[in-house]
Specification:
142 residues, alpha/beta, Ribose 5-phosphate Isomerase B, Chain: A, 6 helices, 15% strand, globular
């Protein structure tokens, strides 16, 4: 199951991503926000990150206007490796090399079509498992 959440700046893109996940038959849990009214991104970034860190959800997707603040928030939770991606190659490599368990998107930076491609790449790419990458992830976690 995928955890997903956004602030008001990411609300519309979150709706598009959730529709796409549903079309692909991918289960998700929506952590909000409820609409486009101004709200605080740390509330939603933290909720998604906690769901991933606890094992309730396998991966997470968080969205705000730039993707920066919400990714910083997510990365404050132990066990989270949240990558802000604005292109498909970064989404692929963060899974292959960093075993990122959360994706952050900037709704004001990437359009819906690109965001869907980034999301698909992130979700469909497995961690390489190579020793050098595993070693580096261990160093990050220390």
């Amino acid at each position: 199951m995928i955890a997903i959440g956004s602030d008001h700046g990411g609300y519309e893109l979150r709706q598009i991503i959730m529709k796409h996940l549903k079309e692909r038959g991918i289960e998700y849990k929506d952590f909000g926000c409820p609409d486009t009214s101004s709200c605080d991104y740390p509330v939603y970034g933290r909720a998604v990150a906690k769901a991933v860190a606890s094992g309730e959800c396998e991966k997470g997707i968080v969205i705000c206007t730039t993707g920066i603040g919400i990714s910083i928030t997510a990365n404050k939770i132990s066990g989270i490796r949240c990558a802000l991606c604005s292109d498909v190659l970064s989404a692929e490599l963060t899974r292959l090399h960093n075993d990122a368990n959360m994706l952050s998107l900037g709704a004001g930076i990437v359009g819906p079509n690109l965001a869907v491609k980034i999301t698909d790449t992130f979700l469909d790419t497995e961690f390489s498992g190579e020793e050098r990458h595993s070693r580096r992830i261990s160093l990050i976690e220390k």
